[in-house]
Each structure stands twice: as structure tokens, then as C-alpha cells.
Amino acid sequence: MDTNQIIMLAIIGFVLLCLLGGYIFYVQLFRVGKNHQQPAVNQEDPFFNPSWNWFLKTPHDEVEIRAYDKTHLKGIYIPSKYKDSDNIAIIVHGFRSFNHDMIALAKLYSDLGFKILMPDQRGHGVSEGDFTTFGYYEKYDLRKWIQFAMRNYGATANILLHGVSMGAATVLSCSAMKIPDNVRMVVADSSYTSLSKLINKNTRPKLFLLFKPLLNLYTYLNHRFLLRDVKPLRDVKKSKLPLVVIHGKNDHRVPFSMAERLHDASSAASKCHIYSEDASHGKAYVVDTESYVEKLKSMLSIYFDLHRSDL
């Protein structure tokens, strides 16, 4: 074997290695698998168990819509305990989570008189789909859920969007779209500013970032978007909806600085932040419950007619 053949084989081997590495990277991020139902919350935990028991005893319905691509998406609807309530909270879970993980928040809003809609995002829980897009296509799914809520639970309903982690990125991106005026406010807990920066932050070892251009290629070939297209920071500049940004300063998955950038970049006429000194990713409600509820209720009371609870 001469030198040219060796060089050619080395080049082919390198290209194949890059293609394989990029594909593995893509599968790990985007191919979540059908009916992914791995809980992120331990419902036996003393903090979550009371709300879990409440959920088990509370009447609720399983609901379903078809997404833009005909994917069947499923969710849970909990009626308000007040017959005259015209408020709906749509609560959106994060990556590799599902709607049951949002039950503690559902009880919080239910106690304030809201009707509750908790979708399972595509490829999560009992919804169909074998991929996620970190908010790119999920924002269209959320718009369909908003339309579903208005059609079934009140055309004049006042709607709140509350998302956690990837769910927060989804509600922020959705808020920049053309959506009904019924949506009154957005709550974004632990959102990232962009998917590309999130990948840069969380990839271990950093050597794998060499495969990022191939990840971008596979993402485009399979889903027709690029990593740079998932950018809640850009979307929050477009949205005028009132905004609450929530984040833990001890978040090692999504840096706290991202929350500051989202809050500062928001074009909303009314906005506030709830920052927790000790909370990790998505745990501000758990760590600083009293402060979290007080500040959230203060903002909610401006845009929603709240039923006062014993919180």
C-alpha cells in the first residue's frame, strides 16, 4: 500500500468518524423515543407528595389534539373548582420530562382558581412522536393547545403560559408568534437563551463539540431547521406579553446569566423576575416557595381575576 492510498484511507476514516460522531450526537439530543415517560419528579418526596395526592383525588380528563404534522399530542385537563372562573393555565414541562412532573404547579394555579391544561410535549409522556426540537416545532404545538383550550373551555378565557426548562423556551418562542389575544401573560422558569449556547454549555467532554457542525447538518436534514433557529432570546425581544422570568442562581445546566439576558432583552411593558439564590435547575418553587408564590401572585393579580386561596 503506497502513501497516497494510506492518506486516502485516513481521510475516508476521518470523514466516517465525523459522520458517526455527528449522528450519535444528534440521536442523543433529538431522538427522545416514543412515549418517553421517565419522571423528573419523585412524587413521594415530602414537597411533591401533597400535590400528587391532590391530583389523584381531583377530577381530570385526558385530552388530545393533532399537531401540524398530524402527530397525536395528549394532555391532562383539570377543571377549576370555581364555576365562574375564566382563567386557564397551560403548563409546559421540559426535556425528558412529562406532564405529571408539573402537578405541583398545577395545584398552585388550581388553588388560585385557574383551569389547568398540562400537555405532554411531542415524544414525551403519552404523546406520539420520536423526536424533540427544543421548542422549534413545539411552539406550533403550543399554539394548537391554545386554540384547543379556547374552543373547549371558553372563547373569552384569559390564558397564562407557564413553562419550565425546555417548556419555558417553548412558551417564550410561542409568545412571539401570532397567537390569540386571550394569552395574557408568560412565565418562563429556567429557560435557555439559545439551543446552540445550551449545547456548548452542557456537552461533556468538550471534544464532542467538534461534531457540532455535523449535528447541525443532521438536524437540518431530518427536521429542516438549524441550531441557531432555536433562540428564545430573539423571540423575547419580539413579544409584548407581560413576562415573569424565574431562575435559580445555582443552576449548573442553564446558567443564571441566561435568565438575566432574557429579562433584560424582553420588550414587555410589564415584566419581573423571581431569582432564587440556592435553587438548581427548575427548583425555585421547591427551594423558595413562599417568595416564589408571593411574587408570582403579585404579577398574576394584575392580569387575572384571582380566587384567593390559603397559600
Layout of helices and strands, plus pairs?
Blueprint: H1 3-30, H2 49-57, E1 61-66, E2 72-78, E3 87-92, H3 103-111, E4 115-119, H4 138-153, E5 158-164, H5 166-175, E6 183-189, H6 195-202, H7 212-223, H8 232-238, E7 243-248, H9 256-265, E8 271-276, H10 284-287, H11 289-303
Parallel strand pairs: 3-4, 3-5, 5-6, 6-7, 7-8
Antiparallel strand pairs: 1-2, 2-4
Helix pairs in contact: 1-7, 2-3, 4-5, 5-8, 8-9
Shape: elongated
Low-confidence stretches: none
Give the name of the CATH architecture of the largest domain: 3-Layer(aba) Sandwich
CATH class wording of the largest domain: Alpha Beta
Overall structural class, as computed from helix and strand content, comes to alpha/beta
- Mean pLDDT over the full residue set: 94
CATH homologous superfamily placement of the largest domain: Alpha/Beta hydrolase fold, catalytic domain
CATH topology type of the largest domain: Rossmann fold
Which strand order spans the largest sheet, edge to edge or round the barrel? 1-2-4-3-5-6-7-8
Helix content: 40-55%
From the alpha-carbon coordinates, what is the Rg to the nearest angstrom?
21 Å
Count of individual helical segments: 11
* Span between termini: 78 Å
- Share of β-strand residues: 15-25%
State the major sheet. Answer: 8 strands, mixed
Topology order in helix (H) and strand (E) letters? HHEEEHEHEHEHHHEHEHH
What is the tally of beta strands?
8
Q: How many structural domains can be distinguished in the coordinates?
A: 2
